[in-house]
Sequence to fold (571 residues):
Amino acid sequence: MEMILKERQRLNEEQNFWKEEVVYQIYPKSFYDSNGDGIGDIKGITRKLDYLEELGVTMLWICPIFTSPMVDNGYDIADYKGIQAEFGTMEDLTELIEAAKARGIKLILDLVVNHSSDEHAWFKAALADSGSSYRDYYIFKSGEAGNPPNNWRSIFGGSVWEPVPNEDNMYYFHTFDKKQPDLNWENPALRQEIYEMINWWLEKGIAGFRIDSITFVKKDQDYGNAEVDGSDGLGSVKHKTRNRPGIEKFLAELNRETFQKYECVSVGEAPGVPYDQYDQYIGENGYFNMIFDFHYADIDVENGSEWFRRTNWQPQDLKKLLFKSQEAVQASGWGANFLENHDQPRSLSKYITDERYQNEIGAKALGTLFFFLRGTPFIYQGQEIGMKNFQRKTIEDFNDVSSIDNYHRSLLEGFSEEEALNFVNQRSRDNNRTPFQWDSSTNAGFSDSNKSWLKLTGDQVEVNADDQIGCPNSVFSYYKQMIQLRNHSSYRDTLIYGQFAPLNTTDAVIGYERSGDETLQVFVNLSNQEQKIESSGELLLNNYSELKEQDGARVLQAYQAVVIRKGGNHD
Ligand code: TEU
Ligand code: CA
Fold:
């Protein structure tokens, strides 16, 4: 009976290609530089396809490569159908799509349609002539008694309102940097232009999109003040523009006019969506195939854009958030699981609190923790070799706009320069944007030259791909093994489609199981103390060379992680 029920559960899970992918996120500027200018590029990705194939990933998400002044490293797009010259050409991209396809690797691009660059032709036309029809592609408003229209703080700091040059008392709106004016989704003509552009790309043969900041497209139309929540006298824009009522119309239409017409995948970056709304986002008629959930990614801070508000989290807090997330996603649809991305610090530095284990043990433990969760795993470049944060001594060494803003906001909130720098070092988005460490040489094999657009971490002698590829105990080999187990072993169906359920463990251990044809259990010790677990069965994966037993119980060592085929009835 139990077996029949389980079989039903398994078959109930609809099979879709995007559930079976293992995605690898590439930050093109920092992956590999093929022409020695110190900037990673598209040809550089093509050159490293052997590496990606060896790892075993099946889909690449490439961060923005479109024409851009690069104020936010490409998240400020000046031409949605053009390729930024420093990254290469459209031919290079076509070549990459084909070369990847030949290896069974699909490609998704980044869709940034909450805002464009202020250098986009639409915005230029809007600025040049207040009577232009492009004016309504963006959000322009008059000020209030010599002040901006309201007190909203942009995500990258300062007012969301930027004065329009040569016009009295007129402002335009930006959720992020002032060089990223928001597109006005209230305008149907603008929306149609966006859909046409999306479909144009999908026709080109890409497998889909990761959709940037998509929960920000609907703004509260009264543009009323937000509650002040900082010493700058402003209130965060997100209270008034993130996942606001009315967004459902835009997102349903977006889906209907674009993604639904294609055999493609849509992955929404959807911070700010409460779990009771997950049905709308990823349910049967959801806007997206899957979304990223940030509830646990931001465990070390009270919110993702104010890094001076740090928390004192414990493993059991992470466990709670992770389980809540898994259960909510499972009740509605499908999730996109990740440890890192280009906005986050390195996971080893964030989640492994005992520095002695910020090494291959810790990296494998975290890998095990996230990789077997129900959902599609997203690996961020460098995570698979255990890259870590850097420590920088001065704010001048940072490139990321958000780091500079957080530094100044920390000072404004009364922290010392040292504290401010410490917050930024822990959280800077540059941490994950340092050049990929291919080998141990001075420039880590990132480029043929000695140039690099961003300073390296400097630890490439200890952490680099070259040393790890052929080495059976490396983090890289462990990731390969995890991918093999999930996608190519006899446990494949269970690991991809099986149900998720939390397991009872001690506080410091995160344990869960996936059940389908059989039950697989994952246990990860997130502490430096030994922890007993209740489990019997065959050991499938282990980041230590042994699994200890004591008084008849299995014992995990510091940061030990195991995957076990549950023993018992069916054995
Ligand atoms: O990020 C959107 C966003 O809301 C994040 O900054 C979020 O606040 C943070 O990650 C929470 O931890 C996207 C892109 O991923 C980011 O790189 C861009 O800078 C931003 O949009 C603007 O396009
Ligand atoms: Ca280059």
Remarks:
- The chain has a mean pLDDT of 96.
